[in-house]
Specification:
The complex is a heterodimer of chains A (about 110) and B (about 120). With about 110 residues, chain A is mainly β. Helices cover about 0% and strands about 45% of the residues of chain A. In chain A, strand 7 and strand 8 form a beta hairpin. In chain B, a hairpin with a 3-residue loop joins strand 9 and strand 10. Classes of the chains: A mainly beta (about 110), B mainly beta (about 120).
Chain lengths: ~110, ~120
């Protein structure tokens, strides 16, 4: 099992706000990065650092962190946001990288 | 615009060595801030970091794979490589290469990613 824990599945109504979480002891020390993966595609970076977005990522995506939990929020979810989302950070030793198990987001 | 492309055999026999190349274009593999990483994803499963290499050749690996992995770089060709030895069916996965960016202020992240290549381990 991963050192970063994500809920397997989350759903959100179209246009509403959803928060996807990632828990792990290492997150009290290290930032998480977040990736969106649509079926058959490579992962795409959506959030890194303290809430930074690549220029191609819409502003409705944001990141935050509190204690051992990192969160990815989508404010006003769109149909095209339906995808798997993965968090990534250091493991508890701080020496290696791990991914969370992924969260499947369904937009209703 | 930086682009990465994986290449290599799509089928490897059990107990043999999986070898993949990542071709980097649109930028130099010798950037001071960048590592270069390999990540894999078994069909229908989660992502797994395999390891990363700095352009100088220093590496670090997933401890669960370390005994079987070698990542190397050829700066003259702007390419880096993955070798995974003694493969089994459990190594069947889509293999991605990606730029692994490290920042003192913002942590680390993978961007961009190659499109991925499916490697099947089967006799």
């Amino acid at each position: 099992s991963s050192e970063l824990t994500q809920d397997p599945a989350v759903s959100v109504a179209l246009g509403q706000t959803v928060r996807i979480t990632c828990q792990g002891d290492s997150l009290t020390t290290y930032y998480a990065s977040w990736y969106q993966q649509r079926p058959g595609q490579a992962p795409l970076l959506v959030i890194y650092g303290k809430n930074k977005r690549p220029s191609r990522i819409p502003a409705r995506f944001s990141g935050s962190s509190s204690g051992n939990t990192a969160s990815l929020a989508i404010t006003g979810a769109q149909a095209e946001d339906e995808a798997d989302y993965y968090c990534n950070s250091r493991d508890s030793s701080g020496n290696h990288l791990v991914f969370g198990g992924g969260t499947k987001l369904t937009v209703l | 615009q930086l682009q990465l492309q994986e290449s290599g055999p799509g089928l490897v026999k059990p107990s043999e060595t999986l070898s993949l190349t990542c071709i980097v274009s649109g930028g130099s593999i010798s950037s001071n801030s960048d590592y270069w990483g390999w990540i894999r994803q078994p069909p229908g499963k989660e992502l797994e970091w395999i390891g990363s290499i700095y352009y100088s050749g220093s590496t670090y690996y997933n401890p669960s794979l370390k005994s079987r992995v070698i990542i190397s770089v050829d700066r003259s060709k702007n390419q880096f490589f993955l070798q995974l030895s003694s493969v089994t069916a459990a190594d069947t996965a889509i293999y991605f290469c990606a730029r692994h960016f490290l920042s003192a202020a913002d942590g680390e992240w993978f961007d961009p990613w190659g499109q991925g290549t499916l490697v099947t381990v089967s006799s």
